[in-house]
Every structure is written in structure tokens, then in C-alpha cells.
Design brief:
- It contains twelve helices and ten strands.
- Helix 10 links the parallel strand 6 and strand 7.
- Helix 7 runs antiparallel to helix 8 and helix 9 packs across helix 12.
- The radius of gyration is 20 Å and the shape is globular.
- The chain starts with 7 loop residues before the first helix and ends in a 17-residue tail after the last helix.
- About 50% of the residues are buried.
- The chain binds 5-amino-5-deoxy-1-O-phosphono-D-mannitol (M6R).
- The site of 5-amino-5-deoxy-1-O-phosphono-D-mannitol (M6R) has 16 residues, from helix 3 and helix 10.
- The site of 5-amino-5-deoxy-1-O-phosphono-D-mannitol has 16 residues, from helix 3 and helix 10.
């Protein structure tokens, strides 16, 4: 049931601190010093390449994980959408591990990609929320998410739980490769353990999203921009918004704007800037200034709102500071809330958006 909530999507957004904590609980040892994976039928240390394949929101989880695996495990990562993957005759590495990410575990293209990889002799893993699903049965190993049943067509809690699993996996792989010391592992585990409480803090300020939703609801087009590990969150924000509010939205890497999309900017186009104070903040800020100079209405999501003069912004949302293992998970929350409240402004059917099905079992 929806409990006190008006929609399943709203309920599922607010469940995230609990289900992410549940999920992390399965991948962190109880004394909080180590990451633990289910027993693997192969040696993680000898894996030479990671291939991540998924659709939609699950693909954006894969896109975030690419940064983590490259950083912590220094292993080549390839990411693709499932409907493209097998048709391009992918190049598999010897001792490659292919990870398929799917809430339902039934998405036709992702399942077909899994079968393709298995056929080619790759190690296969499925990150699924439904452990009785076809992908769970067919993959060599399952890395489950413990999000509970997700009913809203727009994926929210499954996404952040996928990210939690992928974060733990990335650290585990770094440890297996001998690249993460036990001290560093401890620090990263602490960061992960702190995440659910930080998620609650962000959700507690949801009121501040409503004014932003009112500000953007009449727009025809909206851009989301981010850099680095937050670039996939910009794309996820755009997908969530278009899916349930039917406003045209696109996510871009902030540095790409001047290569084309900036031509779209005028006073009618809101731009959601996802700009945490990581090493890329200055670059993001200068990209946002270029938008403001062309009268774009910039809304800033940041833990450092002072980076741009408040008076020049169309809105802002204050975030806690976090390390790169948890920051993208935290920034997923305001983009979900923004889609939700904008859809409410528009009066669309939040849980059952037009033309969409919860599980896409045709190719
Ligand atoms: O069940 P899956 O994770 O395989 O589903 C993949 C996509 O269909 C799904 O994430 C879709 O993009 C969502 N409706 C996004 O909110």
C-alpha cells in the first residue's frame, strides 16, 4: 500500500534511506571495516575487464559505476545500453566480467545481452532487485539489491540500491586487486555507512524542491548538466523528468554545452546545474556562468551554493558534502523529487506515465 503517501513514487523516494541501508548491510561486514561480496566462482583479482550493460535508469547506474571501478580497481570498463550491445559484435576480453543491471531482471534486451556474454564464455553477474527473475537464474552470480518491490514506473529506490551495490563492488574489486589498503577500505566503508543518514537529511529538505518545480513546470525544454561522476545523474534527472512530467529534458556533460546545446539557451530554458564541490566545481561554475550570460535560468544543486551569486539564480538546493563514493547517490534524490513535484504541478499520472510499462519484456 501507499501508506500515508499520495503516490507509490513518493513512498519509494522516501524509503530510500532504509532500503539503501538494508542493501549496504548485505555488502559490509557488521563491524564496519570491510566490504563483503557473495562467494564468487572466479577470482576477482584476475578479471581483466568489466562490461556493464543495462537499460534506462539502470544504465545510468552503470555509467556512475564506471567512474568508481576505474578509480578504485584501475580496470578497464565498458558501458553500453543493452539494445545496442550485442548488435555491435562486442569485443570480449579473456577473463572478462560482464555485469547486467536490472531492477526487474526481465528486461528483454538486457537478458539477451546476458545470454550473448555467457555464450562467449564471459563471467556474468546480475544486479537485480527481483531474485526469482530470469536474469538471476541465468547469470553465474547474483548481486541482489534489497530495495523491496518497486511499483512506480519511474525507478527511484531500485536505482540508489543498484548504486549502493556497485559502490561496494568497486571497493571490493580494488581490495582484490591490492590497490586499496585496509585503512582506505575502512574509510570508504565509513563513508558508505554514513550515507543513509545523509539521504534522510536531504529528503527532510524536500519542501525546497517545490518552489523549483513551480519555477520549471511551464518550460518546454529543460537541461540538466553535470560533470564527472555526476554527469550520469544529470542524465538520470532528465529521464525522470521527461518520463513523468512529459517536459522535454536532456542531460549533458557541462563541458559539452558549448559544442552545440548552448544554442538552445534563452530566458525560457531552465538549466539544472549539478555542481558539488569536487575537483570539477570551478569548471562546472564557469559552464553555468556561460549559460547565465545567455539568459538561461540556472538552478543550482550544490554543497557550495556560494559559487554563484544567489540573486542571479532561478533557484537553488543545498546539499551536504560527500565523498565520490556516495555523492552521486545523494544527488539522485533531489533530481527524483524535482521530477515528482514537477509532475504534480502538471497533473500527470505519476505512477503510471503514458506509453510506459514497468517492465519492458519486448525488444
Ligand atoms: O527493470 P530494469 O532495471 O531492467 O528496467 C530498465 C528500464 O526500463 C527502467 O530503468 C526505465 O528506464 C525506468 N522507467 C526509468 O525510470
Amino acid at each position: 500500500s501507499k501508506g500515508n503517501h499520495r503516490h507509490f513514487m513518493q513512498k519509494e523516494i522516501f524509503e530510500q534511506p532504509v532500503v539503501v541501508s538494508q542493501t549496504l548491510g548485505r555488502y559490509l561486514d557488521p563491524i564496519g571495516t570491510q566490504v563483503t561480496l557473495p562467494k564468487l566462482p572466479f577470482d576477482l583479482k584476475s578479471v581483466t575487464k568489466i562490461t556493464l550493460v543495462a537499460c534506462g535508469t539502470s544504465y545510468y547506474a552503470a555509467s556512475v559505476a564506471r567512474y568508481w571501478i576505474e578509480k578504485y580497481a584501475r580496470t578497464p570498463v565498458e558501458v553500453d545500453i543493452a539494445s545496442e550491445f550485442r548488435y555491435r559484435d562486442p569485443i570480449y576480453a579473456e577473463n572478462g566480467l560482464c555485469i547486467f543491471i536490472s531492477q526487474s531482471g526481465e528486461t528483454a534486451d538486457t537478458l539477451a545481452a546476458l545470454r550473448h556474454a555467457k555464450e562467449a564464455g564471459q563471467h556474468t553477474a546480475a544486479i537485480v532487485n527481483v531474485t526469482e527473475s530470469t536474469m538471476a537464474r541465468e547469470a553465474d552470480i547474483i548481486l541482489p539489491t534489497y530495495a523491496g518491490t518497486e511499483i512506480g514506473v519511474a525507478s527511484t529506490k531500485a536505482f540508489t540500491c543498484q548504486l549502493a551495490v556497485l559502490a561496494a563492488f568497486s571497493v571490493a574489486m580494488g581490495v582484490a586487486k591490492g590497490l586499496i589498503s585496509s585503512d582506505t577500505e575502512k574509510t570508504l566503508v565509513k563513508e558508505l555507512e554514513h550515507l543513509p543518514a545523509q539521504m534522510s537529511t536531504v529528503l527532510a529538505t524536500e519542501e525546497n524542491i517545490k518552489a523549483i518545480a513551480a519555477e520549471i513546470a511551464d518550460a518546454r525544454d529543460i537541461l540538466f548538466v553535470g560533470r564527472g561522476i555526476h554527469f550520469p545523474i544529470a542524465m538520470e534527472g532528465a529521464l525522470k523528468l521527461k518520463e513523468i512530467s512529459y517536459i522535454h529534458a536532456e542531460g549533458y556533460a557541462a563541458g559539452e554545452l558549448k559544442h552545440g546545446p548552448i544554442a538552445l539557451i534563452d530566458e525560457n530554458v531552465p538549466v539544472i546545474g549539478i555542481a558539488p564541490s569536487d575537483g570539477l566545481l570551478d569548471k562546472s561554475v564557469s559552464n553555468l556562468q556561460e549559460i547565465m550570460a545567455r539568459k538561461g535560468r540556472v538552478v543550482l544543486f550544490s554543497d557550495h551554493l556560494k559559487s554563484l551569486p544567489q540573486a542571479d539564480l532561478a533557484g537553488s538546493f543545498s546539499m551536504p558534502s560527500a565523498g565520490d563514493l556516495t555523492s552521486p547517490i545523494l544527488y539522485a534524490l533531489p533530481v527524483q523529487l524535482l521530477a515528482y513535484y514537477t509532475a504534480l504541478e502538471k497533473g500527470t499520472d505519476v505512477d503510471q506515465p503514458r506509453n510506459l510499462a514497468k517492465s519492458v519484456t519486448v525488444e
